[in-house]
Amino acid sequence: MFPLLALLFLIVPIVELYVIVQVAQGVGVAQTIGLLIVVSMVGAWLVKAQGLFVLRRIQEQLLGGSMPGKELVDGGLILFAGALMLTPGFVTDALGVVLLLPPTRAVARSILMRRFKGRVQVFGAAGGPAAGFGFAGSYMDVDVREVDHVDLTRNDTPGDTPPSLDA
Fold it and tell me: Residue 12 CA to chain centroid, in angstroms?
């Protein structure tokens, strides 16, 4: 994994510089800088719009009582697309825009979910593994109260066991 990352950190900047120089030779330096700024501004607007849309879908899923698995992956992909858009250059901007488009993001999401299926385990409120990305059934009834200190070693009556946290 490290050699791949090192290769990417070496190759991507070289490719970006090459493309920027080629564009600058074709249209001029000022126009190239202006184009990079415009593309970054359009990308920032797209990231914001798509991010807010996915955030609303996440909230709807949570209010409906289900875990927003696909929506969370979409959010991560949008975050990654935003990072690509912040990186100066035409190649990373193009990749970022492609990830911001819902159809191509759906393809990337399905690839990621297939790749990591079975590697992620979600735990429900009672501590047991939950099915898939959501909880088994619905949220479990758990009474949560504010507690400053619980002494589990104190035993008021001989023979009693300390209170259980599972109760």
Answer: 22
Q: Please give the structure tokens belonging to residue 105.
A: 């993001």
Distance CA 145, CA 126 (A): 16
- Cβ neighbour number for residue 140 with a 10 Å cutoff: 13
Judge whether 82 and 139 are in contact, CB under 8 Å.
Answer: no
In a domain, 109, yes or no: yes
Residue-number span of the structural domain to which 83 is assigned: 24-115
Q: Is residue 146 part of a domain?
A: no
pLDDT at 117: 78
Cα–Cα distance measured from residue 129 to residue 164, given in angstroms and rounded to the nearest whole number: 20
Q: Residue 123 carries which DSSP code?
A: B
Token pair of 122 as six digits: 């979600």
pTM of the predicted model over 0.70: no
Number of domains within the chain: 1
- DSSP class of residue 150 equals -
pLDDT band at 103 (very low <50, low <70, confident <90, very high): very high
The backbone torsions φ and ψ at residue 123, rounded to the nearest 5 degrees and listed phi first, read -105, 135
Task: Answer yes or no: is 104 within a domain.
Answer: yes
pLDDT, position 140: 47
Task: Let me know: does 100 contact 53? Beta carbons within 8 Å.
Answer: no
Q: CB neighbours of 100 closer than 8 A, spacing ≥ 6?
A: 43, 46, 47, 50, 78, 81
